[in-house]
Amino acid sequence: MKKKPLFLEELSIWLRGRFSLTGEEKVWMLLILIICWAGLVSRYFYLKHQTPQQIEASQKP
What we know:
- The protein has 61 residues and is an all-alpha fold.
- 79% of the residues lie in helices and 0% in strands.
- The protein has a domain at 21-61.
- It is elongated and about 65 Å long.
């Protein structure tokens, strides 16, 4: 197996140190991602089910 260059090993160690999360942080990140995902999905279905009349009415000043 070919050994990685020294700078890549150091970079990977540094990155793991910077991006390692505790259990509580992982739960909070998961909750935030679920909320964002639910918002995007609901917006997609809302826009998908709009009729052309509703779109024109919402664009009038």
